[in-house]
Amino acid sequence: MSSTTANADADAAVEVTEEAAEQALSLLDGEGLDTSEAGLRLFVQQGGCAGLSYGMRFDHEPEPDDTVTEHEGLRIFVDPASMRYIEGSVLDFEGGLQGAGFHVENPNIVSECGCGESFRT
């Protein structure tokens, strides 16, 4: 898995599997976004029965204080507040009969809700 960073804080940043990168790049392309500038923003927000949940969206460019990494051609943007909760995580894409989607494997989690949609660190 190739990875480059745009700032020094990315040492413990989020990793991305090849499958997740391919899926996200396909979605970015479908939105007509320039993958050399645009990327996937991964963030943590208050919510869910365990207290925190993940959010993802496409952004045209990173914010000045974001940690920016690149994996398999996909740029990932993470703001400093979210990085505290998800550093060292792996973004994966799971497909199957129960539905397909992105999944964050977070080593910082101390508990998750029963449905797996929210967590606590």
TrEMBL record:
Residues 14-117 form the Core domain. SUPFAM superfamilies: HesB-like domain. InterPro entries: ATAP, ATAP_core_dom, FeS_cluster_insertion_CS, HesB-like_dom_sf. PANTHER family: IRON-SULFUR CLUSTER ASSEMBLY 2 HOMOLOG, MITOCHONDRIAL. This is HesB/IscA family protein.
